[in-house]
Amino acid sequence: MVTASSISFGANSTFTSSSIPKTKPLFNIIPHSLKFTTGNGRAAVTFQRPVSVIPKATSADSRATKEPSRTFHGLCYVVGDNIDTDQIIPAEYLTLVPSNPDEYEKLGSYALIGLPATYTTRFIDENETKTKYKIIIAGGNFGCGSSREHAPVALGAAGCSAVVAESYARIFFRNSVATGEIYPLESEARLCEECSTGDVVTIEMAERRLINHTTGKEYKLKPIGDLGPVIDAGGIFAYARKTGMIASRN
Amino acid sequence: MTLTEKIFSRASEKPQLSPGDNVWVNVDILMTHDVCGPGSFGIFKKEFGENAKVWDREKIVIIPDHYIFTSDERANRNVDILRDFCMEQNIKYFYDIKDLGNFKANPDYKGVCHIALAQEGHCRPGEVLLGTDSHTCTAGAFGQFATGIGNTDAGFVLGTGKVLLKVPPTLRFVLDGEMPDYLLAKDLILQIIGEISVAGATYKSMEFVGTTVERLSMEERMTLCNMVVEAGGKNGVVPADGTTFKYLEDKTSLPYEPVYSDEKASFLSEYRFDISKLEPLVAKPHSPDNRALARECKDVKIDRVYIGSCTGGKTEDFLAAAKVFLASGKKVKVPTFLVPATQKVWMDVYTLPVPGSGGKTCSQIFEEAGCDTPASPSCGACLGGPKDTYARMNEPMVCVSTTNRNFPGRMGHKEGQIYLASPYTAAASALTGYVTDPREFLE
């Protein structure tokens, strides 16, 4: 069983996302200028990450995440055990380069398309490119298999904010933290048996709880432990800068 | 300390450490390929600057191998991106391919990254090797710490030569007893994964010792370590010995210093196996831990057989398959796809004599058995790939494969049924058209 304390990093560093910074804030974000080019050397694009929430207008219900209380709210999508990264993003889509903005969006449109037909409800509706499910609830060993970072990237690009799993596979967990694409949380109970796809849930990070509004039940989440400061801080690059391991950005 | 702990200790310059500690580790080799290289380079440039230089042009090995022989434009473009970066950074080891119509016309091209790393002498005892591929753990066969990482971590390593890692506790697997001549390392690792499950080694190191392991060749040790990730393992190790040193003699001139677990080292758990009692296995759909005896699956009708990948497409894997076809003398009953892992393996298949055949090569035996012609070396259909990938499963069918994963859709079609097996079992199954225990032909 992988615990949330499996990785520990220092606190108090600025967050850096390896992909396009989103207008939806997952974490306590310090405004940060990000500049990057696409994989084939197109013109540099400069972003200013917003401090406050700008709810993204989508065809489905809009996000209600607020800063800085770290709350996630929305519909949940439930999967079982051992969902491997081939199911999260099948290999034929790996020609898409995540650091390329257009291809990043395309990756998102294929998130969880590899799930077998036993999953009668799709994660992303046909003819849509974003998901209406902000939160994924999973069984054990979520993200096992291939190390493809395209997996957490696809979920994040699709519009998923957080995963609440019973446990995670190592590389997927590490990639989620490194990219900041999705917040990998762990539940105490087996939520995949308690919740159903389409249930409306709220995750309150500070209180470490998940509320299923559809069933009226509440569940405890495992302590974030070392994980919180990492994601808040922004991952390995920011931590390394803070500790002088690499030079600060201009 | 255990072997893995000692590698962490040396690489982090910390004389003492324990499982659970997070340490900055110096990386000896970073490998990437056509699927993850472009993304990793994108992150490297974004974080370190458009004009940044990699930490060490001789410690990075760039190996296109995943989506090579395809007309998919993005796949082809990704190999071009690798080339552009290598030229810009003057990367010493780039195993390039330009002529997709004839792999032999590319003198630098190797094929499957994990096999190429070993064959080109980049795997050395005691070192830290990272790769943007989960099967990077294969290199643990050389008594080094080798594990898979994502694009972001790789981007960081490109710039700094360091990575932040948590010291894993070690599970020890003691394999003793004489290996029956119908078993291969693939059966051993399927036995272990079936025992501990796909999450049995999550965040842990798997150390393989015992008399059976000591008698395994390097390629067999690579097969063993290759599937450590299928049990959730962080890395796998086989302590370096005479077999390792001999293999490395003509491949690397760089000095290396092996390390070994102390007598009194603490292991999280120890598992003991009497190998002489084991039987050929398969992993049934759809999980590598869905273990079953091959002989108990003899009523499973199959549609095809695939022999290839880092797990089961090495020279010895093909020699093993050829041995079964030779023993039978008959033709295969289903399409049998052969994908040598690297150019060198392909050459071996066409030149090495198969013992007991009167001088025939694997390729001749394969042809006489009615197998498909050995294909251009690459990862091939192990992971499906672009739709035009050779041997990709584009319709639902049942396949016995020497590859490493059989989750839904792994080889292409979501309803495909993949039975993971050793090359012996795969060849035997091809001959009958059903999942078959190789003892049908080898005894």
From TrEMBL, chain A:
Organism domain of life: Eukaryota
Protein name: 3-isopropylmalate dehydratase small subunit 1
Species of provenance: Citrus sinensis (Sweet orange)
TrEMBL record, chain B:
Annotated organism of origin: Citrus sinensis (Sweet orange)
Keywords: 4Fe-4S, Iron, Iron-sulfur, Lyase, Metal-binding
Sample GO molecular function, one term: 4 iron, 4 sulfur cluster binding
SUPFAM superfamilies associated with the record: Aconitase iron-sulfur domain (SSF53732)
Gene Ontology terms: biological process: L-leucine biosynthetic process
Name assigned to this protein: Aconitase/3-isopropylmalate dehydratase large subunit alpha/beta/alpha domain-containing protein
InterPro entries given in the database record: Acnase/IPM_dHydase_lsu_aba_1/3, Acoase/IPM_deHydtase_lsu_aba, Aconitase_4Fe-4S_dom, Homoacnase/IPMdehydase_lsu, IPM_dehydratase_rel_enz, IPMI_cat
Superkingdom, taxonomy of origin: Eukaryota
UniProt keyword annotation of Iron present: yes
PANTHER family the record matches: HOMOACONITASE, MITOCHONDRIAL (PTHR43822:SF2), HOMOACONITASE, MITOCHONDRIAL-RELATED (PTHR43822)
Chain ranges of the Aconitase/3-isopropylmalate dehydratase large subunit alpha/beta/alpha domain: 22-292, 296-433
